[in-house]
UniProtKB/TrEMBL annotation:
Keywords: Endoplasmic reticulum, Membrane, Mitochondrion, Repeat
InterPro entries documented for this protein: AB_hydrolase_fold (IPR029058), NACHT_NTPase (IPR007111), NPHP3-like_N (IPR056884), P-loop_NTPase (IPR027417), SERAC1 (IPR052374)
Pfam family, one: NPHP3_N
Source taxon at top rank: Eukaryota
Localization per record: Endoplasmic reticulum; Membrane; Mitochondrion
Entry keyword annotation includes Membrane: yes
Example of a GO cellular component annotation carried by this entry: mitochondrion
Domain NACHT: 350-494
Organism per entry: Venturia inaequalis
Protein name according to UniProt: NACHT domain-containing protein
Main subcellular location: endoplasmic reticulum
Length: 538
């Protein structure tokens, strides 16, 4: 097996993350190149491999692999040979991850090894047999990888590759320049396909501060900071990913690497980071343009307008006015209820399911929960939808997903990339054609797996008022209720047997039946009446 396990991860045999390091070009066909790429000789003559000797102390639950392959023919011959090598990588990963194929995965690549990683990801998207790899990839770390591609840049990239070969082997290689400039390897198809995958996981790009083998421009994607973190390391091309931490310069570089790798590691296992960048809301309403922000382009704004079927915030405001306003006394009891607190505080309890007969106050209860969640810090994301059977615009499963996606994009503008990937080929028809449900499920599933979504709450009121697509919506909710420990759901519905039969299958849930809390509801009603009476007296 080309995969070599360096660190087994958790001592109980249940690692939480797989980290795979992939070397670049090996013109001399050195047997130990997979190790040497990441190792550096220390003052006492020993070899220090930071992935084995340093990283595990801060990534205790990570299983770490080196991938060893014959990189010279893989990276210098035909595109087919290159694609075959990427498929071999995917097959090896699946074999090693067979018992837990959904375990989060982070790739670390040096130089041209990053091109192989990109091809593997493209192949994983194109082949349903590799869906687990595609869906599990949670981070990409590139050390001086020459990303330039496309027909206008092939010659430049060819010269870069030749420089790398000359650096490693001390010999020129016209064959490699020819292989690259002919487009047989770094063809437009790889570059274009890769561009469409950029939104799927966070990227760290390290570029060399010494030497000029791969420039900063070539080693980075130019993405927004929330998608790509660009870091300069004071090292040349060969030493950019190996460190003797006994030397101050190497220690400084390693600290930068460690910080960024651990960030991806913590994101992958669902740990919240206190200092992630905050994205502020920028969509004012579905009727107009994004206001006061450079984060949405003109094309983005059109996509958002086409997506938006309603603004759930306005629906909430309308509902509260219709029901006489939102008084804390009408919902305070649920905040103190043990089942609510278990849902709120328990990492594993991800679904709060509220049921009750008509007139029990389910909708105003959810308005109160939303009101309280809105008080949380700016890094908390909140999206909700109020179904209404008598309104054809907001009584379908498709409308629910459109509303939830709309509010999430409003709060985290970069999520628009997930929508645009599906929207651009079809335009407005994407949201109302025969495949709209499938497309929207794909969009929101990708959004909910985005590592930048921390403490996200999704709320749907009145499932029983879903006139079209209720069964599909319930199946979706059951499946996605376990998609991430950072995602929590609140659902409400009348006591309908069909809904109860399905939602009973959802895992990690807590149910709250209003009939069993009649005293609390009666007190809430009394408080509301007293409040309204006092208003009339005034």
């Amino acid at each position: 097996m080309p995969l070599r396990e360096l660190v087994p991860g958790d001592t109980n045999g249940f690692p939480k993350v797989d980290i795979v390091a992939i070397h670049g070009l090996n013109p001399s066909n050195s047997r130990d190149h997979a190790y040497d790429t990441w190792s550096k000789e220390t003052a006492d003559g020993s070899s220090r491999l930071w992935l084995r000797d340093d990283l595990p102390s801060v990534a205790k639950d990570a299983r770490i692999f080196l991938y060893s392959y014959d990189s010279f023919p893989a990276l210098t011959q035909t595109k087919k040979r290159f694609t075959d090598e990427a498929n071999i990588l995917l097959s090896c990963l699946e074999a090693e991850r067979d018992e837990e194929p959904d375990r989060p995965l982070i790739f670390i690549a040096h130089s041209l090894g990053g091109i192989l990683v990109k091809q593997a990801i493209v192949s994983a998207f194109n082949n349903p047999h590799h869906n687990a790899i595609r869906d599990s990839t949670r981070g990409l770390v590139f050390f001086a990888t020459p990303h330039d591609g496309g027909n206008k840049k092939l010659v430049t990239l060819g010269a870069t590759v030749a420089g790398i070969v000359n650096l490693v082997s001390r010999s020129a290689s016209n064959d490699i320049i020819q292989a690259v400039t002919s487009g047989s390897l770094y063809a437009d198809t790889l570059y274009d396909n890769w561009v469409h995958r950029l939104a799927d996981c966070p990227i760290v790009s390290f570029y060399e501060g010494c030497g000029n083998i791969v420039s900063k421009k070539s080693a980075t994607f130019g993405l927004p900071g929330s998608m790509e973190n660009v870091v300069r390391l004071e090292a040349d091309h060969s030493n950019i990913c190996r460190f003797d931490t006994g030397l101050q310069a190497d220690l400084d570089n390693y600290k930068l690497v460690r910080t960024n790798v651990i960030r991806l590691y913590k994101q992958a296992i669902g740990q919240r980071l206190p200092d992630l960048p905050i994205m502020v809301p920028t969509v004012s309403s579905c009727a107009g343009e994004a206001v006061g922000s450079e984060k949405f382009s003109q094309e983005d704004n059109k996509c958002i307008r086409d997506l938006c079927i309603t603004d759930p915030r306005l629906d909430k405001e309308r509902i509260e006015k219709t029901k006489g306003g939102l008084d804390q006394g009408s919902y305070r009891w649920i905040l103190e209820h043990p089942d609510f607190q278990r849902w709120r505080d328990n990492h594993e309890t991800r679904l709060l399911w509220i049921t009750g007969d008509p007139g029990k106050g389910k909708t105003i209860l959810l308005c109160g929960i939303i009101h309280e969640l809105e008080k949380l810090d700016a890094k908390t994301h909140l999206s909700y939808f109020f179904l209404q059977a008598t309104n054809s615009r907001i009584n379908t499963a498709i409308a629910v997903l459109r509303g939830l996606i709309y509010l999430l994009v409003d709060q985290q503008p970069l999520l628009i990339l997930y929508v645009r990937k599906k929207y651009d080929p079809f335009g407005e028809s994407l949201f109302d054609n025969t495949n709209a449900w499938t497309a929207l499920v794909g969009i929101i599933t990708n959004i909910l797996q985005d590592p930048n979504l921390y403490n996200t709450y999704l709320i749907i009121d009145a499932l029983d008022e879903c006139v079209l697509g209720l069964s599909e919506l319930l199946d979706f909710l059951i499946k996605t209720s376990l998609i991430s420990p950072c995602i929590k759901w609140v659902l409400s519905n009348r006591n309908w047997p069909d809904i109860e039969e399905k939602l009973r299958r959802a895992g990690n849930k807590v149910g709250l039946c209003l009939e069993l809390n009649a005293k609390s509801i009666s007190e809430a009603i009394s408080t509301f009446i007293e409040h309204k009476t006092q208003e009339l007296v005034k």
